[in-house]
Amino acid sequence: MADFDVFNGDADGICALLQLRNADPRESKLITGVKRDISLLKQVSAGQGDRVTVLDISMEKNQAALAATLEQGAEVFYVDHHMPGDIPVHANLQAIIDESPQTCTSLLVNKHLDNAFGLWAVTGAFGDNLRQSALDLATELEVAEDLLVKLENLGIYINYNGYGSELQDLHFHPQELFTLLRPYANPLDFMKDGKETFERLETGYHEDMGKAAAMRPETATAKTAVFMLPNEPWCRRVSGVFGNALTNDFPERAHAIITENKDGTFVVSVRAALSNRTGAGELCKQFPSGGGRAAAAGINQLPGDQISAFVDAFTSYYK
Ligand SMILES: [Mn+2]
To answer: pLDDT tens for residues 13-35?
Structure first.
């Protein structure tokens, strides 16, 4: 009998799994990747009696692999907040799927575990830029103000680590980062013990964000701003968290961050305005390799000759 943990390499995926493995320790095979790499379930070859946990990756994008895994007799526990497509009805599938924009996988796992490792859920929610939901749970858990800031920073740094178009762009392979965090039931204990890891993330984050802060928008209206970033590792790492930071700083404005990939295509991060968390996924879906949720979405490989079409679509969508 084998166990597989398949999880998104961002803060939400990592913090969801940290809660589950604190509650139910397993020596599992870990399958993860950069945040954008969500076709993960196909890497699993599981059979009768095997247990597969899948976290924070769209069921729709893993449909064929899920069907095959169930077909082979494995038990699947699936928790996610992205669009699922058709959820299969199968005795071996337990699925907790909730697409509402105020929740994320870490929060869904927290509910499932009755707040057992709630501080990891707060961290994951901050990482997914669900600030209000993170604050609400923190209030319920009576987290002190000074500790809250620490959890917010940790969530942002773990999330930041997941971006990048390939693993070499990252400071830590998400699997390594999970393993470093794994011993801790409480993120505050990790921050005391794991100073070196924490500081590496913190320093990287501030260096990259410092460079991003110097960028000026390519186009900006009262309701939208588009930033173009060059083909450099720091840009690939920072694109998502930069979008989140802009969203928090300019809550009335929708943002698009366009970063050049190594192959000459472009990766696009779209963040709807905080005051109007709609449409980002729908907009991105109009372009090849695009998808995501209402508040946050993206396009993985936008051909260069479609940039102006994208900018027009974005600007008119949120006018
Ligand atoms: Mn998530």
So the answer is: 999 999 999 999 999 999 999 99
**Cα of 168 from ligand 1 centre, angstroms:** 22
What are the start-end ranges of the H helices in the chain? 11-23, 63-71, 105-112, 118-127, 131-140, 145-162, 174-181, 187-193, 195-213, 233-249, 280-285, 307-317
Residue 212 C-alpha to ligand 1 middle, in angstroms? 23
Q: How close is the Cα of 237 to the center of ligand 1, in Å?
A: 17
Ligand 1 mean position to 283 CA, how many Å? Answer: 19
**Ligand 1 centre and the CA of 35: distance in Å?**
9
Distance 163 CA to ligand 1 centre (A): 13
* Cα radius of gyration rounded to whole Å, the chain: 19
- 128 CA distance to ligand 1 middle (Å): 6
- Say yes or no: domain 215-317 is CATH 2.60.40.10: no
Tokens 């799994």 correspond to what residue?
A: 17
Give CATH for domain 3-203. 3.90.1640
* Largest Cα–Cα separation, the chain: 57
Residue 164 has pLDDT above 90, yes or no: no
Gap from CA of 305 to ligand 1 centroid (Å): 30
**Whole-angstrom Cα distance, residue 39 to residue 65?**
9
210 Cα–ligand 1 center, Å: 25
Query: 250 alpha carbon to ligand 1 midpoint, in Å?
Result: 22
Q: How would you classify the pairing of strands 3-7 and 29-31?
A: parallel
CATH 3.90.1640 in the chain, residue ranges: 3-203
Length of the chain counted residue by residue: 319
- The CATH 3.10.310.30 portion of the chain extends over 215-317
Specify burial of residue 255 (Cβ count, 10 A radius: 0-12, 13-18, 19+).
buried
Confidence of residue 79 (pLDDT cuts 50, 70, 90): very high
> What's this model's pTM, rounded to 2 decimal places?
0.90
